[in-house]
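Posting this for the archive.
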Amino acid sequence: MSIFYGLYVILSGSLFLFFFPFFWLYTRVTGRYSEHLEERLGILSSLVFQRLKGTPRIWIHAVSLGEVKVAASIIESMKRRMPGCAVTLSTVTEHGRQLAKDTFGEDIPLFYAPIDFVGSVRKALSTVRPDIIIFLETELWPAWLFEARRMGIKTILVNGRISARSISKYLKLRPFFRDVLKNFDSLSMISEKDADRIIAMGADPEKISICGNAKYDLLGKIAEPSIEVEMRRMLNLEKSQRVFVAGSTREGEEIMILDAYEKILKKFPDTILLIAPRHIVRTPKIISLIKERGFTYQLRTDFNRPGTTRTERVVIINSFGELFNIFSIATIVFCGASLVPLGGQNPLEAAVWGKVIFYGPFMENFLDARMLLEKAGGGVQVSSPESLAEKAIWFFNHPEDLESYGRKARDAVMNNLGTGDKHAQEIEHVLTGEAVSQT
């Protein structure tokens, strides 16, 4: 055990023992997190894993919605490459678990990931008994990694990314993360920049491969025309209507979106605005902003009531897991968290529908996606509400360019399919002991 890991065990253990009684009381009073508290403590049903047949035994850790989508692509590829493999999947969020349940049904055992406390991790590892643990994207959990190494379990980071915004924080603790990263058998990264950043954190360059972003793979398969038909029916939209979708917006952006929308309405008064906040708990605040502008609005959840249809020009998408489907009926799309310094959101979910995609200057977390779109000529950067409105109006006035940009955006995604299989190949290499590919 390294001195850094020893200190981590002491600190994390002390915090766990101090805060757990309060957390336990919170679950009893509120009912939140109580249903699966045992799983989060590493206490899993051994019967589930006794019934799990096949080899190798693979544990995939997917935190939330985005990682579950990546997992689906990689699992599909792994089952082709290793038909006898037995897969289990852990999540952290409730929404991630629900998406996993909807995606995999009863085919794959699902459970909540244990907290990164030595006792919980050891208990979970002893129950699941995996041959390998696959961590997705940015999951660097010291106790999991050290304990897996101690128990002879292989580990790999897949679809790995280290954002430009977070690298400075990691570098402040470089000696610690260098020790953590030593425990990985392989690091399968999205891009060269991600590889460079994790090397700067202390990773062994010999363990790194660059395979692209597996989020691309499923997009082309799930963008079905029937989704657009259903969304238009639900939102009472004609195919000819102009729809401005602002997706995954964050604090401070809704004001700018409304500024741009007011300018667009002066030229195209029939334009519909759909605002999908990243965190739907902010819905009341967004309602206040809309009312201040004198707009009337409806909520997406209003349409769950029989006989209720869209009649207003502004709709707030206050539901989970529907944004991808909403993109299908957009004329133009704004990618949130990019006009404020929060690193942006993935623009490719809209791109696969063949939409013109606007984003602000702050796209550090998705530079690979941005570069892909810009190289293909399918992405448009804006710097202010004024430039967003100006460019939206230009595209509305030039329908041929609108279609051309959208087609290029879709082609950029479709031409980069197959990354899930590249990551699956690296997983297979780790399991068979072959050398890791460097490209």
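The CA atoms of residues 13 and 19 lie 10 Å apart. The chain has 20 helices and 14 strands.
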